[in-house]
Specification:
six-stranded parallel beta sheet; single chain; 24 helices; alpha/beta; 685 residues; ATP-binding; ATP binding; transferase
Length: 685
């Protein structure tokens, strides 16, 4: 949960206001899909014991549509030749109110929810008795699990101009929603709009930024509003005014998109969507909005102070971070447990839950890797090349930090620790953008780590980016390291011009030759597949020499995998021989207890298969025939190729790096498991 949305945990009564731009399509007709999604969300809230009050616009638009149709069917040909004037707005409201309510009633009835209609006018609220009766009626309806649906009774309103006063008189449905939220003592008001929230300028403007937290002192004079709603009277100006009034009266408000099918549920899960208005927002100094550029500049400045320290001083920082991680293990696991619980509630599958989970063993391993990195030989200032150009003229090339690294990763909070430690050891600044699934975990890990960085360097050395909107601005760092699935890495590679270090897929192969020691082969394939099935270096395809399908060797291997609970899919030959389902693609990253099995004629067929279907990550041959093994090792074009060793061995920690940046399948700069040296460049001093 985002820290600025922690208040949603105590929400019981919520007012939801849906605007005309959400209720209607561009052609003025009702947006039935959006209305259906809204009703389904409200149904889910009621099932979770929330008290829901709905304020809806759209009656005038719906009435105008129906009257237009009625005029059309009753018009003669001559009438159609002479355009007629528009419709009276109050007549449209009178026709539309019953139609809109009938639509809501039909939709809610399908979901076994009862709704009720309450039409009000601004003058009613001058009467204290009315206000009390309104509160009593709504409380009774909510006790009966009935949704009260409010709308201004435009059909009989006598108001001709905007009107606001201290009595809380409203002018439109936005201000009505704000007034009701305060009057009915709601815990939260959600204003659904046709944009993601409040922007610093017109949403269509490329330089406009989404404002996640509205601070009146800061934003009141900075925001430029665009055009108002297409059909309603409000627009964003009206929403902001209503939100400010309600928030300062004690009811938090969030403006977010009504076009998304799950926006209300996401708001109540505490996700950082839309714009929040809160009376204490100005006190939330921790959420001070810093631009991506400012964050990168601060990281660069801190990295230069870090580089000024000697090797021992930087090692002490790493040891302090390791101690901080150990001392704060309980709170780290508590926050991580909340992330895992949310992911399970949403329905994430086990292969996605596993990398998200910080077990005691995983935290212990992270602490050990940070301490190991503290003992690594000083990487900065190493003489890479020394050339005497002339007498007493010597040219040296030495290693130096890259500058600022940007790491974008998914639901793997351990990446944050690994990259922070590597950045500090290599003298680099670091910007991190983690997946929303690990938001709590990333936040607490970032807080623990930066608290161990001395003031002489500054905690801005490591910045945690929380907004997706900042990513385009961040694609200007010195090196980008994506850690995630194929889609994420590919999108990042396509979207930036800066160097990208990483791999898109981990389609790793184990080839078992006819000369293999079968006991060793069973141990290797078991470790490669079952030790950590979601890892990028886990075996996804088992290739077996054809002779083993004839002498029982293949069945031994398959039986071992099945004993470990591995689901098997076959290529054309293996599926026929083993009577298993045929794989839909050899290029499949299962990330679970599943793998592909195929039979090949010899080592050269295995090599061809790997080159055609692999991802150039990690491959292994199990063989006792030295010549066959040498052919495999010399001809397979992957970042790591092993003989009689599990693919899981392709790891920075096992290579003695302490920890790793990632496993690169690139052929320039760094390849294979990348440690500190992959975060360095060189210069001539």
């Amino acid at each position: 949960m985002d820290p600025t949305r922690a208040f949603v945990k105590s929400v019981k009564r919520v007012v939801v206001k849906v605007g005309t731009s959400v209720v209607t399509r561009n052609d003025g007709r009702l947006a039935l899909g959006r209305l259906g999604a809204l009703c389904e969300q409200l149904k889910e809230l009621i099932d979770k014991d929330y008290e829901v009050i709905l304020v809806t616009s759209g009656a005038v638009g719906l009435g105008r549509q129906r009257l237009r149709y009625r005029r059309l069917v009753n018009s003669s040909f001559s009438d159609l030749q002479n355009p007629q004037g528009g419709f009276d707005g109050k007549a449209c409201a009178a026709v539309g109110q019953s139609s809109l309510m009938a639509l809501y009633d039909t939709m809610f009835s399908q979901l076994d929810v009862t709704s009720s209609q309450l039409l009000v006018n601004d003058v009613f609220f001058r009467d204290a008795a009315f206000r009390k009766q309104l509160s009593d009626t709504v409380s009774s309806l909510l006790d009966l699990r009935v949704i009260p649906i409010f709308n201004e009774n435009d059909a009989i309103s006598t108001r001709k101009a905007p009107c606001e006063d201290s009595a809380g008189i409203f002018w439109d449905n936005d201000s009505l929603a704000g007034l009701l939220a305060v009057e009915l003592k709601a815990d939260l008001l959600v204003l659904l709009s046709d944009v993601e929230g409040l922007y610093s300028g017109p949403p269509c403007h490329p330089k406009s930024k989404l404002i996640h937290t509205y601070v009146q002192e800061k934003h009141e004079t900075e925001i430029r509003f665009g055009e108002k709603s297409r059909y309603g009277r409000g627009g964003m100006t009206a929403k902001v005014n209503a939100a400010v009034c309600a928030a300062f009266a004690g009811t938090p408000v969030i403006i977010t998109s009504g076009f998304a099918t799950d926006s209300i549920k996401r708001v109540l899960r505490g996700e950082r969507i839309g714009t929040v208005f809160h009376k204490d927002a100005h006190l939330w100094t921790s959420i001070k909005e810093v631009s991506a550029h400012e964050m990168a500049v601060a990281a660069r400045d801190s990295s230069r102070r870090l580089q000024a320290l000697n090797s021992e001083e930087r090692s002490k920082i790493l040891l302090a971070i390791a101690d901080a991680l150990e001392n704060n293990e309980n709170i780290i696991r508590l926050e991580n447990g909340a992330d895992v619980a949310d992911a399970e509630e949403i329905g994430y599958e086990k292969p996605l839950i596993s990398p998200l989970t910080l077990t005691p063993e995983k935290i212990s391993s992270l602490v050990k890797s940070v301490r190991m990195l503290a003992d690594v030989e000083e990487p900065i200032g190493q003489i890479l090349k020394r050339t005497e150009l002339a007498d007493k003229l010597v040219l040296e090339k030495i290693s130096c930090p890259l500058g600022v690294l940007l790491v974008i990763f998914e639901s793997r909070p351990d990446v944050l620790v690994q990259m922070a430690a590597l950045a500090i050891r290599s003298g680099n600044g670091l910007l991190l953008k983690g997946g929303k699934e690990a938001k709590r975990s990333n936040t607490i890990l970032h807080k623990v780590i930066t608290s161990a960085i001395p003031d002489t360097v500054g905690d801005t050395l490591i910045g945690l980016v929380t907004s997706r909107e900042d990513i385009p601005d961040l694609l200007k760092a010195n090196l980008l390291v994506p850690r995630g699935n194929n889609k994420l890495v590919s999108q990042i590679k396509d979207g930036t011009k800066i160097p990208v270090l990483g791999h898109a897929d981990g389609i790793c192969h184990v080839y078992v030759d006819k000369s293999a020691n079968m006991d060793m082969a069973k141990q290797i394939i078991s470790d490669a597949k079952t030790d950590y099935p979601a890892a990028c270096n886990a075996m996804e395809t088992l290739l077996v020499h054809v002779d083993l399908s004839r002498n029982g060797g293949l069945h031994e291997l398959v039986s071992e995998l099945r004993r470990q609970g591995v689901q098997l899919y076959g290529g054309p030959r293996a599926s026929s021989s083993l009577n298993i389902a045929e794989t839909h693609s050899y290029h499949t990253k299962y990330s679970s207890l599943a793998c592909t099995v195929e039979i090949v004629d010899d080592v050269f067929a295995a090599i061809d298969h790997i080159h055609q279907h692999g991802s150039a990550h990690t491959e292994c041959i199990v063989a006792e025939d030295y010549e066959v093994a040498e052919a495999f090792l010399s001809q397979v074009d992957s970042a790591a190729v092993f003989h009689n060793a599990s693919t899981r061995f392709c790891d920075g920690a096992r290579f003695g790096f302490g920890t790793e940046v990632g496993i690169s399948t690139s052929r320039i700069h760094a390849r294979g498991p990348v440690g500190v040296e992959g975060l360095l460049t060189n210069r001539c001093p």
